[in-house]
Amino acid sequence: MYRYGRYSGYRRRRRARRLRILAIALVVVILVGSLLYTTRAGNNILSNIGLRGASPQATPTSNIAAQPTSRPTTVTSPSPNNNVPPTAVVTPEATPTSQPKPTATSTPSKSPVETAKAYIANWEAGSYSDMYKLLSDESQKQYDRQYFVTRYQQIAAMATIQSVDASLNTSDAINAGNGNIIRFPFNVTIHTRLVGDIKEQNLLTLVKEDGVWKVQWGPNMIFKDLSGDNLIRMFPYSAPRGSIYDRKGRPLAIEGTIAQIGVVPGQIKNEKVLLQRLSQALGVSEDYIKSRYQGGQPDWFMPIRDLTKQQAAQLQKQVGDIPGVAFQERVGREYPQGPILAQVIGYVGAITAEDLKKPEYKDYSPTDVVGRAGLEAWGEPYLRGKPGGKLAVVTPDGEIVKVIKEVRAVPGDDIYLNIDLDLQIQAEQELSKGGYRGAIVAMNPNNGDILALVSEPSYDPNDFVVGISQKEWEALNRKSSGYPLINRATGSSYPMASTFKPISLAAALEAGIYKPTSMFYDPGYWNKLGENPPRRDWKPGGHGWISLESGLVQSCDIVFYEVGLALYKKRFDYLSEFAKKWWLGRSPDVDGVVNASGQVPGPGVPYPGWGPGDNVNLAIGQGALNVSPLQVAMVYSTIANGGTIYKPLLIDRIVAGDGSGKIIKKYKPTVLGRAPVSQETMDVIHRALKDVTSSQVGTAYYVFKDFPIPVAGKTGTGQQDEKLPFAWFAAYAPADKPSITVVALAENAGEGSVIAAPVVKNVLADYFNVNARTR
Fold this sequence. Notes:
single chain; 775 residues; alpha+beta; Nuclear Transport Factor 2, Chain: A; 4 domains; 7-stranded mixed β-sheet; 26 helices; membrane; transmembrane
């Protein structure tokens, strides 16, 4: 039997124990329930047993930008001078310049991490529609698909976005809203064309809806400072294109002004008359002209087309009196010297859609210009510079709210040439005044500097800046035009003719088969190969007895037929291989221009076999031997300086365009090799070339007999079937201490001594500033 006191205490202990058990059970239930509700596995269990209901809609917090109540509209901003059409703040999507990344899933996941990763991956891939599928119901109610996709596309275009790289930080996730809201920090690098990389840290907010996690979206997830109706605007800073100058700093290609003709709608008094007269003057339809100014404000200048200065002056007279017609200028490429040095300088043109697909143009925009020919094309990486811009968040009225990033434009670098503009102009005039098609090259034989590089006929590169028609382009490429786009001085090859004879003489002396005093008999013909009719000398009746050295002075073909045959007998390829050592048959590799390699014929080149007749032809510079005028200038510069073969240098230096004067690249004299001759042989050649202009039997004596400065040179006449021959003259002066080499070629013009020698004489007279020109 229990006593009362003890029994009463026992009952109290039992009640306390039950309370403790209930409390523990309640805690366990709460913990298990929480685990089931907040984990992916738990959600699956609850859903399977029917205990998982709809989760409450998440409420945006201060970390989520305020959402606009309506879609932003495109805002326009008038030009500061109110004379040109406004520019839209939001522009069409730019052409993609990088390969899209693989598209991720577009289905929301029961894992917030998986949904977040999918959203980031789709953003990187540019899959905006798939991004939209991952948005929460609330976000999709607030922003429809078209608005969402269009906004991303327009911002990508406006901000010049090329690609996006983002990384999710899942370890620092922020939980909120009773486990129904989670925010992941992420780092994003937005690669843009104009302002480079933009790095931001942001938050990706997800909410749980019906057991899956979705993205709670706002504009601040594009750029963290973008919110509400505000817009993204890029203020582009153009990079002035670098200039091209001659050796004295005189401009050859610069950023200048381009004339424009246009219409100011509010000033039109008689639209019918305006359209008729403009259509006739410009050669375009009335509908096209009207389409160019339709929709413009009354006081806007609506451009119709660009013009050269000459075209503008002519049109001012034709249509300048019509009310509503106006002229103005814009910044653009200008070639102050017009056709002078055109094939070397080249020209710029508008970039094309095909260009923009190429890797080298990934940083270009559809409105850019690019170098299309000559130095403009070769120097594009230097001349273009680097455009910049200011990327900002703006209000619908255009007021700047926040500058995201600003990068100043870097001007293009300037290219300085070794060309002497004065000499270039005089040389071009020498060819053009005679109506010759051909080339002139002037070089410093002591370092390879190119002083003049002439190709005739020429063209005006300013025409390409304003745009040429298909008809005009076809005209430039017709045979009747003389193919003015071709750089004949460096990019075309011709028979070298008798200007090759110094090499043949040198080969004979170095081979030991003849001496300078070796005698030959020239009756005016030669038939030692049994040819019928026999080969003829240029001089009827021949030269009689003549030495090897004098054979070069008088350019006696019979002497060099003998040389060609003797060299063939010594070794059939001796002369061919000897000629190649003078840098013939391979490219001079001059930066900035087209380089012709030419051809030195020999066994198997250009056809199978190599007989004595082929070698005889080569000895007088005929047959299949082809060289560019620049290569001939290299040969005679090598003779002038005593045997050093210099690489021709068109460019002197490239200078930073930022005004610092820093030299980006300096071109220094480069020795390619040595002529394969002894000093004794070089002395013989030099003496003979002096006699060409100073001895009464020299082929250029009557051209240079009164010239006050001694000149060494050689005539050449390249024979053509049923056509006038190519006229050559190659020279250097002063003969005993040369400072310049000049080579002239006139296509199908006649004898070298009659046509080309006077041209070279006049160029030398201009160079030395002496009054001894041939009129």
